[in-house]
Amino acid sequence: MILDFDAYVTAALFDAAGVPTFALGDGSVRLVSLEGFTTAQAHDGAVLCACVHPSGAGIVTGGDDGRVVWSRLEGGEAVMSEIAELKGKWIDAVAASADSGLIAFAAGKDLQVRDSKDPAFARTFSHDKSVADIAFDPKGRRIAAATYGGAALWYARIEKQTPQMLKWAGSHMLVLWSPDGKFLLSSMQENSLHGWRLSDGKDMRMGGYPAKVKSLAFLSNGLMMATAGANGAVIWPFQGANGPMGKEAAEVAYDQDALVTRVAAAGRGNLLAGGLDDGRVWVCDLVSGRKEVLKAEKGAPISALAMSMDGRSVAFGDEDGGAGVLASGF
Amino acid sequence: MTTKIPVTVLTGYLGAGKTTLLNRILTEDHGKRYAVIVNEFGEVGIDNDLVVGADEEVFEMNNGCVCCTVRGDLIRVLSGLMKRKGGFDAIVVETTGLADPGPVAQTFFVDDDVRAKTQLDSVTTVVDAKHLPLRLADSREAVEQVAFADQIVLNKTDLVDEAELRGVEAAIRRINPLAPIHRTTRSQVPLEAILGRGSFDLERITAAEPEFLNPPHGEEGHVHDEHCDHDHDHGHDHGHHHDHGHDHHDHAAHDHAAAAGIKGISLTSEKPLDGIRVTNWLNTLLQEKGVDILRAKGILDIKGENRRLVFQAVHMILEGDYQRDWKDGEARYSRMVFIGRDLDEAAIRSGFEACAA
């Protein structure tokens, strides 16, 4: 299914029921069904970030209107609930954990936490500099906040605390925990990744990228991490206690004429999807090496990409509003 | 693909008239859609326009370049604005009166995403005629904002007499010989003179004519005010050619008064330059002294090359390219202007002269 939304596609996601959902620069959330899509006008402005709701139904979006909104389908109708509103702020990042039921979002220097099962619960954690991205650990108990000079680790529920600071000079833009919770990965302003082993705080420098790394995804049950930011998808091995330390990265689906802007995986399998800056989309099986081009037509850079849990579908969106849900062929 | 959105950086110390100018940009019936990034949080939409707050977070880059600092908040805000439906005709970034314009300007060259979508149009500095001499004496930031500017809005000219005004303009030119000066009152300078300058566009470097080589205001009209500057594209093109045969070292030597050690240095050569030698020299100079060189611009006559080599630099970031052909009968020359802090003029001059082919 190919769609045209006429607005920047900020995020493409599959919720737990496998409903493909798009969040757009015109503030809307589009929930796709077999008949087409249902629109939820979640924000007055642009959606800046999105994630799947802890319940697994629908998505949580953050906008430049300062609102955090949950949009989902109920009986075929779009339903929206406001989770938070911070007047005059931009919600730059949002994350949620199905395990703990918590929702976290970043606005300026603050990280805030809400509980999807307890409307009275609210936490605010402040930083010296703005928070660019946030991520829950696999159990949903701790939150990592990417900021200038490193990442801050917070216990999501504790009201008064001093965060554990993982320091590394520079501006950190994107954070992700490894699925076993042993490593934290960050993408930096200077076209490189940084990683910390949490057991001892050991630093891992993962450089050599020609562009900023805007997308990270674990696959193969956490044995591999794929990244964007190069002419192919860069694959880092994560076997053993040392993770990628001292190991070489591999590059798959190399294309000298294009850069990978987004990667997506289903987590368990070996399938990886890649979206390119010339609008093309591919899927590759990292074990067999088989690669299928899902979208060969060129267009605006891919800005959003997701793979369904079963690996059968890929949802993509681009900077000009082009979007689609395609069968992966695997 | 989509064209890049021009971005104007608006600097100036408190009370100079920056806010009045911003309010005009937001309220005037110009039919354009602007986004204004101000340095306090709070988002207000006025008609078509959008005002966004930013935090002035200056980040150092881990790339071995000591003066490479960027505005991290700006990278985030601009990337957010790019997601908005409909886009913008122009973006204006206001900085606080205490801000160094360097990191803001460098953001537009260092960050690939920002660079892909936007183009720095100019650094515009608002100063007021009455208080500028005092600010230049007591505020290093005020001096740097004048030094960094592509154009200066000289505001509140009604508060001083003509002699004072000329003194203020002379003080500005000693620090920044390149920036046109727009005389005005109550920030009533035409918006079309302020926005859409293309100051960093190599194609539009028509002349690197230091203003201190020009006759004073009134005799030649080189100081731009609200009455004379409707044809701003040609601001540098007329009446300068008589200068080319002269050696103007002595003009720059008046700079002993320049506050905070910041001044402009102009170099001229009638002899064609050796392309490789001058490129190497410029690279080395900017690498070694880039921290202190705020801005540089130049048009060069390269031996064996029929096109003009033009460049502009912000600290260590150098952009240069061959531009149009020298015209038949056009006087060929090479001229560079450096604006910087504590520059060793004699060393720069001899380095430049050694680049002759």
Describe the structure.
The complex is a heterodimer of chains A (330) and B (357). Chain A has a 6-stranded antiparallel beta sheet with strand order 14-15-16-17-18-19, with no helix packed on it. In chain A, strands 1-30-29-28 form a 4-stranded antiparallel beta sheet, with no helix packed on it. A 4-stranded antiparallel beta sheet of chain A has the order 2-3-4-5, with no helix packed on it. The relative contact order of chain A is 0.12. Chain A is built from no helices and 30 strands. By secondary structure, chain A is mainly beta. Chain A has strands spanning 2-4, 9-14, 20-24, 28-33, 36-41, 47-52, 59-63, 67-74, 77-85, 93-96, 102-107, 110-115, 118-126, 133-136, 142-155, 164-177, 183-188, 192-197, 202-206, 216-219, 224-227, 233-237, 250-252, 260-265, 271-276, 281-285, 291-295, 302-307, 313-318, 322-327. Chain B is α/β, with parallel strands linked by helices and 357 residues long. In chain B, 28% of the residues lie in helices and 26% in strands. Chain B is built from 11 helices and 16 strands. Chain B has helices at 18-27, 72-83, 101-110, 112-117, 132-138, 140-148, 162-175, 191-194, 249-252, 275-289, 345-353, and strands spanning 5-11, 34-38, 44-46, 49-53, 58-60, 69-71, 90-94, 118-128, 151-155, 181-183, 224-225, 262-269, 293-301, 307-314, 317-325, 334-341. Chain B has a 9-stranded mixed beta sheet with strand order 3-4-2-7-1-8-9-10-11, with helices on both faces. In chain B, helix 5 crosses helix 6. The model of chain B is unreliable at 212-258 (pLDDT under 50). The A-B interface holds A 6-8, 10, 24-26, 45-48, 64-66, 88-90, 92, 108-109, 129-130, 132, 148, 169-171, 188-190, 211-212, 300, 319 and B 1, 41-43, 52-53, 55, 57, 59-63, 70, 72-73, 75-77, 80, 82-85, 111-113.
